[in-house]
Hints:
41% of the residues lie in helices and 18% in strands. The protein is an alpha/beta fold. The strands form 4 sheets. It has a 7-stranded mixed beta sheet.
Amino acid sequence: xxxxxxxxxxASADExxxxxxxRETGLHPLVADILYRRGYCTPDEVGIFLQPELRQLRDPFxxxxxxxxxxxxLPFLRENRHILILGDYDVDGITSTALLLSFLRxxxxxxxxxxxxxxxxxxxxxxxxxxDVILSRKPELVITVDNGITARKEVQELQNEGVRVxxxxxHLALPDSLPETVTVNPNHPACSYPFKKISGCGVAxxxxxxxxxxxxxxxxxxxxxxxxxxxxxxDFAALGTVADxxxxxxxNRLLVHAGLQLMNNQPRPAIQALKQVxxxxxxxxxxxxxxxxxxxxxxxxxxxxxxxxxxxLLSPTLDQALPLAQQLNDMNEERRNLEQGMLTIAFExxxxxxxxxxxxxxxxxxxxxxxxxxxxxxxxxxxxxTILLSTANPERYTGSGRSAIPDFHLKExxxxxxxxLVRFGGHAGAAGCTVAPENLEAFRTAFARVCEDWLPKQLxxxxxxxxxxxxxxxxxxLVEQIQQLEPFGAANPEPLFALPIPQEEFQLLKEHHVKWxxxxxxxxxxxxxxxxxxxxxxxxxxxTVGFNEFRGQRKIQMLLKEIQA
Length: 565
């Protein structure tokens, strides 16, 4: 069922331009070409990219309503009035909550509370169910983080009860859904902030930057209440930014770069605990955050209560952090087991819809908190827009959709199926929807029709390569300079190279893995590729490059990502 990828090489920049950039920066021509294609076209731009510094962060008061936000919060701090932070159950929302809690505690707030809605019980953000909980805690000010930009009606409900509301968010919204209150959001239609791709945690960090300055101006900080060093909060900003898969450019790159330095040099107890539980021995990278720490923290919000992850992040000692990290790890194992069962059912159903260009899969075994992960796996493997619906509730079927096709807009596709849906929302690559049981087949038909109309007859996913390596592999200088491009992530992917097959024979490692030895100092490792290579004669490998250090010896080690037979 898996669709074979079409290998394409990224169009190189003009050779003379790359040679000039390489000469002026001292970079390997291949690295200069990669940077030029990613928009870093002058020595100054390359220098800023390769050496990000926190002083490059923009003034937080450039964000619309930031001054009003500060003026709203300060009296509540001065008078020690009750503040509640409303977070979200994903890692961006969890880290945003922890970051703002930490700062406000340091600023002297003693009537401070937070609430993260439970996915299945309360829904996302400000809902009627979450308002009931909020009002029961009697706050005077609610500050949302990573949510709230579409909660016009719910904000009005809180205001009618005498509660002030400050929205901080980064999501898009239509003008008629915007709350009528102080709103800090780079993506607000009226906000002219030059960088729109900040995560929710990035916006929360901007808020504390502004609050710290305002409190400094009114001589708030003293010996009993020392001014906090905001660098100590950058690990939260880095984790939230990477987990939310926003572009790792501009200010996001600055925050993640500095946050990783903090985690590796002065890790807080939570980070130490996560390293122990996930058995991370070496340096923490953006890949560590995205593939080891974030899934573990997300598991709490997918299955139970994300507050556990907030408590982990704020744990003052390793002794307190370790059992919380272990609990999260146990939840993540439960999530993985559920996911595996769901994948089996989903692939079986997908095989029955092989002639369809879009998949609508439904089962009472599908868990609402995991639908998105499984839909993403199906969309990637089949290269078809995929919707997974949980049918355990006989009154409504709730689902998540994903698409891996660049020119296919999933939310707009659902818009064309609106007559069959109770509600829907999302964006190009991810969406959610609710279907009445009696409309399931009509929705499946409508979605298949939209996909048939919008998509071409033949679809193949593309594997974009950054260049070709010689058969002997890269030299150490190239590998070192590639590593300077980290942190890798959205809009700054780890460079991928084509490598001619070194030799047909490879070593089998522990039955599942493979290794090619190119020289005493260079090798290729393919984790879990043994089965895929059975009976296949690949002529080209797609690899990333790096180093492996073992017992004081450093080798160039390429990691196998794809094979071309």
